[in-house]
Design a protein that fits this description.
heterodimer, A: about 1050 residues, alpha/beta, 7-stranded mixed sheet, 31 helices, B: about 220 residues, mainly alpha, 10 helices
């Protein structure tokens, strides 16, 4: 887009007298003529123009033809459709009503408890399991998007050996022969490479295998995992333990390069706990978050004080802090820079003042020694047992994954490995570049890959077996706190996938090689619990029958699906018996427990007990010497993670939380550093280190540490599928086992090329109108109603629209910006619930993305290199005096009796007047046929309660009107009113911090009404008198007054 | 130069202008009539089904309740099409060798579902809910007609929005007591003008006409 001429001019502009400014992008801040031009167009240049050489005559021809066709189309006959009922309808199924099943998503070494919505056997939507201790009803964006992965038509569909299609039995035979050959060598030539094992059943299977083949080895590799955290715990305590945080108990929190609220297994729990001390309606003391980070994170965006610092300097901060807090065994380190030392000074005092109520968290990318120091700091602050406790690790076999992967590669190169089974994961793509994993793998005589895609690793293996998606298999998984959930399938494998348990069964001593995963998981848990799987001999008599009880109904054979009663006809009684409940099949003690676990989505009593740990005396020496020059930090991509989701179009098109980039990755660089290096966003650079080169465009990221480039893995895939192949830039070449997180001494060369990145941050810009209202805790205490006073203009009340009254329900939403971390789970949830299509990179660049809900990210502050960051989810505001409604020539958007702006797709003729007249720019238009009407598998994913839109139709957020209607019908069938909290919108239910509250504004006791009455509540653009139904809670920050002297209440300040 | 047209030609020009208007009007009228015709709505069209199932026999002669087969009509949006098992409840004993029922037995035997042709087919952007209509006192007959007299199922009404809205605006003309919902050939005990408004009040019928009631 436009070029940023001068960072100094930006600074001057920020220092100006215009008061507090909020900006979304550096382009907007600089206010260049190009940016203004961009803004004033509804869509970017040429996006809405007909470029083909069509003259007036051609235009008239097209128009008249389409007019005629439009008339005729109303007279088409409905095509013939079929009704296909069940042969034997499952008892619990009511056609037209979804069922919800509890399961869990295994992801990067831990599980997330979920409820999955199923329509007549098709899973369509993921929700969090409210009973699960970690997810507590929320989900992250990966869980939300995983439903699309299930139906991905590019998943591998056949078992192949050297390209020939084989049956599974052939694979089992091949594995049995490997096993037979290895038995004599005690498995010395057998290696199994898996992702992090969080399934107790799989761990038991592997233990069993290793008992029989003691020389075999199982290697785990996860490109992004708490490698350093685990090593840090070993350094500090001499054992592998996992820290469990009680963030809700902490008054002062320090995050050292940790995205503890969004990343990792505990992210959801931490976010919920953090939010409990930050909510608008919170009456207790607000917590305070300090963040020292090398690259902006979502957690850091909620920090009251943020210090951008090179990743390698963070260890210095940790050690200096430890010295100030008198942690034994840590030598004092001086911290360079006035800002940093002042930050540290105040931080140390603050932490000291909150002994036992503070918390220091180190990020996964910080070296192990930092983790060790942080454990010591938490101990010195008396936090252990209060805000942090230690348990065993959720992964079954903790260890140094990088070292064991290196060892495996050594063995493969030495030729001592006869057979390697790669069970999940894509190590050829994700392994650090210096291992040259692909080359080493090729030296193994027999290689088998089990994965969902025929990816880079599958290409290098003889055998490939499709892996079942977690929604297709029986398994089990531990959450971060140890709680076990039985993973139950929602659908039979679509592409014949096999679960890891079924693969490992081929190596088992018993069972003949092929066993259903169901049996394996049940057998493990029956053994664990010691409960009998035998049904009681005589079933309990349910009803007193007039005749002697008939012969005992046969208990379902072990392994039969639950709930299917055998229809064995009993001997006809002489006297017709009164109609009574069918005798329940007798359940074994294990089955009784098992069914409850499946129903609840967790196995009770499996959470880990706290473990007592003792600090080892000496602190490890500092790991990384602080070097000058450019430094690279590696991170998983916020949308596609390590590349495993790269064929997921929802995630590809998701505007990444802090950069708003889609469909690509870029090297993030601080604006100040970019100015020094004469770079602007989109400039392609060459990064060189140790003989390796990566070409990648840069992206100016406010808040990035100076001289630090952030590289996101997960792009540049060569064998991903039709969505993910060949997009973005592979950066793995620079990642080595020696420096998997931070790479110093990187040479940067400007190539002179420019690459177009599709970024949405300035789409739908509101031209500098200030939509975010912020005060500090002191200002808020002095004037609780500051938010109302920040109104720019006096709202007018004159309207030409007729007055409306709402009897019954008046739906409204309140969004608490205090706790929104911008994690994007809501955006993907909305996409899944409302059948929102993806449009592709070029269409996003044209401003045609279709997300009904966007999360606007605003920066403020006088330093583009360290701004404050705010997130503002922006669904349709459902205005009461809606500007969109009055301009529609065909009444396709109308006002409902409950105050919604209804959008009627079948009426819409696509004038786009409504979108032009919308001050919030939340309407989306189907310029082309974006909805996929042809791919069969995607049809299964669609929510049957929401229309799939076609070309030429406007659409927008409906407040999930399908959920409102369902609740309305349900309440009327029960002769009652809809209860508060009964209607939960998709975005609301996904939100980890419960930032979105929805309900009836006519009910003064509803949660949304109470939030509406809160003094922090405000509505956007009130001066336009559109009266939005969606309102926002102003942000109250809690800065340390020694770092940020209190300012008077900013009545004068434009907020 | 002599005149090409004499004065009498004025009539022709006027007539052709008027004729053009009439023609345009006629085409529009024709389209509107055509759009509402049973050819387009497929009302009253007999549709051949894989099995010659007769509602007239099962409902009219045998007196089987609607809900014996359409089990979810009171609880779900979809009334439910009976699984083959429901047919076999009786037909494993009755007419269990009749050739006409062979497809049913084959379905049950081979676990292959029957493929019925949909008779009442709303467009995909319309979301109709049976349960709430039953709850609010809408008889089956009101929309589906005298099913007990239909040897082959057919669609009695147009199912166009005009027809839906007619009732949503004036539910008192169609509502019946809940006890009579599944009655065929219902005659109100009192005149509809008396019983209708009373039931609308009693059942708290709102007759929602917001677009999102049916379109979403």
């Amino acid at each position: 887009m436009s070029e940023i001429k001068d960072i100094d001019a930006l600074r001057a502009q920020l220092d100006g007298t215009r008061g507090k400014e909020y900006w979304r992008s550096l382009e907007a801040l600089s206010g260049t003529p190009e940016f203004k031009e961009f803004l004033h167009r509804e869509f970017p240049q040429n996006a809405s123009e007909w470029l083909d050489p069509v003259g007036r005559r051609g235009f008239l021809k097209l128009m008249s033809a389409s007019l005629a066709l439009a008339g005729v189309s109303a007279c088409t006959r409905q095509p013939t459709e079929e009704l296909v009922p069940y042969v034997r309808q499952p008892e619990e199924l009511v056609p037209g009503k979804p069922l919800f099943y509890a399961t869990a998503m295994p992801f990067a070494g831990a599980g997330m408890g979920l409820l999955v919505e199923s329509h007549e056997g098709r899973p369509t939507k993921i929700e969090g399991n409210p009973d699960h201790p970690s997810s507590r009803g929320a989900t992250d964006l990966f869980a939300q998007a995983s439903i699309l992965g299930l139906y991905d038509p590019d998943r591998s569909t056949t078992i192949t050996n050297l390209g020939d299609i084989e049956p599974f039995s052939a694979f089992v035979v091949a594995m049995r022969s490997v096993l037979a050959a290895q038995l004599s060598k005690k498995g010395a030539g057998l290696r199994i490479l898996t992702e992090t094992i969080a399934s107790p059943t799989m761990a038991a299977q592997i233990d069993d295998l290793l008992t029989r083949l003691p020389a075999a080895k199982v290697v785990q590799w996860e490109p992004f995992f708490g490698h350093n955290a685990r090593e840090g715990s070993r350094l500090a305590f001499n054992e592998y333990v996992a820290p469990q945080y009680a963030v809700e108990k902490a008054d002062v929190i320090l995050s050292l390069d940790a995205d503890f609220m969004c990343v990792g297994a505990a992210g959801l729990r931490n976010a919920r706990a953090f939010a409990s001390r930050r909510r608008a309606e919170n009456t207790g003391t607000r917590n305070r978050l300090y963040a020292v980070e090398s690259t902006p994170t979502n957690s850091g965006s909620r920090a009251d004080h943020r210090l951008p610092l090179k990743a390698s300097q963070i260890e210095g901060v940790a050690r200096a802090l430890a010295a100030k807090l008198n942690v034994p065994g840590v030598a004092a380190v001086s911290v360079s820079g006035e800002a940093a030392s002042k930050f540290l000074e105040s931080l140390a005092v603050d932490l000291q003042g909150a002994r036992g109520k503070s918390l220091v968290i180190a990020g996964d990318s910080q070296p192990a020694s930092v983790h060790a120091v942080v454990h010591a700091i938490n101990a010195a602050l008396g936090n252990v047992g209060q805000t942090v406790s230690y348990t065993q690790t959720p992964e079954a076999r903790p260890g140094n994954q990088i070292a064991s992967l290196r060892e495996l590669v050594g063995e493969m190169n030495a030729g001592t490995v006869d057979f390697v089974l790669i069970l999940g994961g894509n190590p050829v793509y994700t392994a650090p570049a210096d291992l040259k994993f692909g080359d080493a793998l090729a030296k193994v005589r027999l290689r088998a890959h089990v994965g969902q895609y025929e990816d880079e690793t599958a290409e290098k293996c003889q055998w490939h077996v499709p892996e079942a998606h977690y929604l297709e298999m029986w398994s089990d998984v531990r959450a971060d706190d140890g709680t076990v959930t039985i993973v139950q399938p929602l659908i039979a494998p679509l592409y014949g996938g096999k679960s890891p348990h079924e693969i490992l069964a081929a190596f088992a001593e018993t069972g003949g090689g092929e066993r259903p995963g169901y049996d394996i998981v049940r057998e493990y848990w029956a053994k664990q619990t010691g409960l009998s799987t035998a049904a009681p001999a005589a079933p309990p008599v349910v009803v007193a029958a007039p005749v002697p009880a008939p012969a005992a109904p046969k208990a379902p054979p072990a392994g039969a699906a639950a709930g299917v009663g055998a229809g064995a006809p009993a001997a006809a009684p002489a006297v017709p018996a009164p109609i009574a409940a069918a005798p329940k099949p007798a359940l074994s003690p294990f089955d009784l427990a098992w069914r409850k676990w499946l129903h609840d989505g967790l196995v009770p009593g499996t959470a880990f007990a706290t473990r007592q740990v003792t600090l080892q005396g000496a602190m490890p020496p500092a790991a990384t010497p602080v070097g000058d020059g450019l430094e690279v930090v590696f991170r998983p991509d916020p949308a596609v993670h390590d590349g495993r989701f790269s064929n997921n179009a929802w995630l590809q098109e998701l505007p990444k939380s802090l950069t708003k980039l889609t469909w690509d990755n870029a090297a993030l660089i601080a604006p100040g550093t970019a100015k020094r290096l004469l770079l602007i966003s989109g400039d392609v650079v060459e990064l060189k280190q140790g003989g390796q080169t990566v070409r990648i465009p840069v992206w100016l990221a406010p808040g990035q540490a100076a001289d630090t480039l952030t590289l996101h893995l997960g792009y540049g895939r060569t064998r991903s599928g039709r969505t993910g192949t060949g997009i973005g830039f592979a950066v793995n070449a620079l990642r080595t086992t020696g420096a998997p997180d931070t790479l110093a001494g990187v040479q940067l060369t400007k190539t002179g090329d420019n690459y177009e990145l599709a970024c949405t941050q300035d789409h739908g810009s509101l031209e500098g109108r200030n939509l975010i209202r912020v005060a500090t805790q002191a200002q808020y205490t002095a004037d609780p109603s500051f938010a109302a006073k920040m109104q720019e203009e006096i709202p007018k009340t004159l309207t030409m629209l007729p007055p409306r009254s709402y009897e019954g329900y008046a739906w409204g939403m309140a969004i608490d910006q205090n706790v929104c971390t911008g994690c994007n789970a809501c955006v993907v949830a909305c996409q899944a619930e409302n059948n929102v299509p993806v449009v592709g990179k070029s269409q996003v660049a044209n401003g045609r993305e279709m997300h009904w809900l966007r999360v606007d990210r605003y920066y403020t502050g006088d330093d583009p290199d360290n701004p404050d960051t705010y997130h503002q989810p922006m669904p349709c505001q459902q205005c009461e005096s809606a500007p969109c409604e009055v301009v529609c020539p065909v009444s396709a958007t109308t006002h409902s009796d409950e105050g919604l702006n209804d959008m009627v797709y079948n009426r819409c003729v696509g004038t786009r007047y409504c979108s032009n007249n919308c001050p919030f720019k939340v309407r989306r238009f189907n310029f082309l046929l974006y909805g996929d009407f042809t791919t069969e598998s995607y049809k299964l994913q669609r929510n049957p309660d929401v229309t799939v839109r076609s070309r030429g139709v406007m659409e927008k957020c409906t407040y999930c009107v399908q959920r409102i209607n369902q609740a309305r019908v349900a309440s009327k069938l029960d002769d009652r009113e809809i209860r508060d909290g009964e209607v939960v919108t998709a975005c609301q239910s996904a939100c980890p911090t419960e930032a979105i509250v929805f309900g009836n504004l006519n009910d003064p006791n509803s949660r949304v009404s109470k939030l509406r009455a809160n003094t922090l509540n405000y509505r956007l653009l009130e001066e336009l008198n559109v009266r939005p139904r969606t309102s926002y809670m102003a942000v109250v920050r809690n800065p340390n007054t020694t770092l940020e002297p209190a300012k008077p209440t900013n009545g004068e300040e434009r907020g | 130069m002599p005149q090409i047209f004499d004065r009498s030609a004025n009539f022709l020009s006027k007539a052709s202008l008027g004729g053009l208007l009439l023609f345009v009007g006629g085409v529009i009228t024709l389209l509107m009539v055509f759009g509402r015709s049973s050819y387009v709505t497929r009302a009253n069209e007999y549709i051949e089904q894989p099995i010659q199932f007769s509602h007239a026999h099962h409902v009219g002669d045998d007196g089987i309740d609607c809900r014996y087969c359409h089990t979810s009509v009171e609880t779900s949006a979809f009334a439910g099409i009976p699984p083959t098992k429901t047919c076999m409840n009786c037909h494993s004993q009755l007419w269990n060798t009749a050739p006409i029922l062979e497809p049913v037995r084959a379905s049950f035997r081979d676990d292959k579902p029957l493929h019925w042709i949909r008779v009442h087919d709303l467009p995909d952007f319309v979301y109709f809910n049976h349960s709430i209509h039953v709850k609010k006192g809408m008889g089956c007959e009101t929309c589906h007609g005298r099913v007990d007299q239909m040897p082959l199922m057919l669609q009695r009404n147009s199912l166009q929005m005009e027809w839906c809205i007619n009732c949503h605006r004036n539910p008192e003309n169609y509502v019946r007591p809940r006890s009579e919902i599944f009655t065929m050939g219902y005659q109100p005990a009192e005149p509809q003008s008396v019983i209708g408004p009373r039931l609308v009040k009693q059942y708290a019928i709102k007759g929602n006409t917001s677009c999102s009631t049916c379109h979403r």
